[in-house]
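In the lab's daily routine, each protein ends up as an entry in a very long ledger. A line of letters takes care of the sequence, but it says nothing directly about the fold. The fold becomes a row of whole numbers, each drawn from a learned catalogue of backbone shapes. The protein below has been through that process, and both of its lines are reproduced in full:
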Amino acid sequence: MKKLAILILTAGLLLGAAPASRAIDFDIKGSWQFAFDYINGGNFMGKDRNGHHTMGQQWAAVRQQRDEFEAIQRLHLQLHARASKFLSGTVFFEIGEQRWGMAAQGGALGADGTNIVKVKHAYIDWQVPQTSLRLRMGLQGMKLPGFALDSPILQDDVAGIVASYKFNDNVSASGFWLRLLNDNYAGDTNGRFANYMDNFDLFGLTVPVTLDGLKVTPWGMGGGMGPNSLTYRYTNRPGGSVQFAINNPITGQPIDGMQLRDGLYPAAFTSGHASTSLMEDAYSSLWWGGLTGQWTSLDPFRLSFDFAYGSVDHGRDYLKRQGWFGMVVAEYALDWGIPGIYGWYFSGDDDNPHNGSERMPYLATTNNLHNSLSTFGYRGNPIMGGGKGILGTNPTGTWGVGARLKDMSFLENLSHTLRLNIFGGTNSTTMASYITGRRATDGAGRTTYRNNIDFNSFGTYLTTSDMGMEINLDSKYKAAENLTFVLELGYIHLWLDEDVWGRYENASHDSLNLKDAWKASLNVIYSF
């Protein structure tokens, strides 16, 4: 509570000083967000492999065991200091999330949490005088281009510099340097080599082009990850396989750290190396490239598309990961809403665990604010609340088709969005036997290392024999100029192949007790 008081006092002093300084204009905006969630079947299993009942809201994307019903609140507070049209600064505080009743988050009797105030963004914007060159530097939100789908590769908060230049009304360009990780390595067991070769940097370029009835953006990004950016641990599993896991250097941010593990390495691989020499001691190279666009010549008909390819080379063939994705969305705007259909495809793993992964690599997609696929299975909603991403933080390794009725409105201040998705996996069924530990070695006798240990280790890993269905109904009611109520309803059913996933680790506890997932979430937002 003391931190919150200091924060509000600081904001008041800054705003109070504005008339005296005259040179700086201060603006403050933000929102209070409240969520009341009931979520069941979040990990798609009624009982775990040991036959134990699981918590109703065990969110597959984070592996957090929570109650079926929860009440949560959060405050966003943004301060903007503007010196001129050429120079300004922004700081964005996030206070919470605070689960009602949880002492560690300041939500229990007496409140007064001590670890709930976080700096989400802190950056300056400045423009070189008499030019069109603008720069933003500091902690900021970063999103790769995407018209059909929010970026399934990178969309999160990160430290870096973005430089943008407008050539004319039709062509502009943005280049960036991002520092994802650095100075987090504590060294070896004797404390030697602390912070050595642990930087993770990316560089990229986007070139938006706007023509009559057409927008296209080619883009590219590449960089290097130090061998000490992420550290590793190994655990022997029943049946002779080894669990391979990445220690999260991003303390307090479990989703982001697990995304790096899940997005940059294979789900399972085989190697003849001992665990002590499994990893390369040089920098890993990473690159992605893509093209996204939107055609509106026949407005109100609109066609959007995305395509991207990426590759990560860790210096070992069995650790490589490379793949692609594509998506197309067709929409038609009517007076009462926007009906649309869409389809997507992400490449999947083949049946050889020794040649790396064929799934498209990704970094972090935690902040997909307008993901067009769903607000339950994937993280597609800016509202707080739980139950977002139980299928995964993005659809890597899947295909799907869907239909939606977006922004339907028949009454003033009330709108609805309805989605129906049918989806399946693009990964080989053979890979499931390595993930579940039924194959502790490959045909050449090489040991299996498992990054994932089940179909729902981090989100869901679906094979070509698995399918699913998701339905979302999201309703928004604007009760006043600054007060909005959002009701989210979601349901997901999986058809998993029993022969593929039913057996586990060549041992007992091999049952696959599937359960449907569903949620009802009421969000209350006061924005100012």
The radius of gyration is 24 Å.
